[in-house]
Amino acid sequence: MPVLIALAFGYLLGSIPFGLILTRLAGTQDLRTIGSGNIGATNVLRTGRKGLAAATLLGDALKGTVAVLVAGSFGAPAALAAALGAFAGHVAPVWLGFRGGKGVATYLGTLAGVAWPAAIAFAALWLGCAFATRYSSASALVATAATPLVLILLGLPVAAAVFTGLTVVLWWKHRENIARLRTGTEGRIGAKG
After folding, report:
1. How do residues 1-48 score in pLDDT, each as one tens digit?
2. What are phi and psi of 98, to 5 degrees?
């Protein structure tokens, strides 16, 4: 029962669309009508509001971390269930017709709650790849692909299995980015237009 409650709790927290809420409060156009149409920080950045994008990134990460830490008081299985729920809530929020973001910030936030050393490794990989390539999507793909291995090295095989599942979903949500990376048409960090 705690696992099911944690899953539902995580989903409800994860489904809070910070990007949409913050851009509406700031009076910008509907986030779903610009750029990729996603509700995450990368698309918020396309509004030209860096502060809103940073706030969205923080909110999307923290909702995952909070879900895991609260549920974790009922044990590791509940914490992992909350991580799964928070990620699912972000990528498929019931309030938005199950059309949410791609999940990178929430993935990182849940990872921070489950195993903070793995989150540091994720951030280091993301930053290194972003610095080398200037592709946000490629950076996320590299960091998430490495995460299950990092969790195994930390002695967390069950968490590695859960994050393998999250990684598969995240890669699927990035399928259009992957196609653009392969054709060389993916937008780079800081590029105009």
Report:
1. 789 999 999 999 999 999 888 888 888 877 787 777 778 887 787 777
2. 65, 25
Give the N- to C-terminal CA distance of the chain in Å, as an integer.
Answer: 49
Residue in the block written with tokens 């609260």: 70
Residue reference for tokens 């995450």:
40
The DSSP letter of residue 28 is: P
Q: Note if the pTM is more than 0.90.
A: yes
Q: Which among 39, 31, 51, 36 is positioned nearest to 14, based on CA atoms?
A: 39
Between 157-173 and 136-153, two packed helices, what is the crossing angle to 10 degrees? 170
Q: Kindly give the residue spans of alpha helices, DSSP state H, lying in 1-75.
A: 2-14, 18-25, 41-45, 50-71
Q: Are 115 and 159 in contact (CB under 8 A)?
A: yes
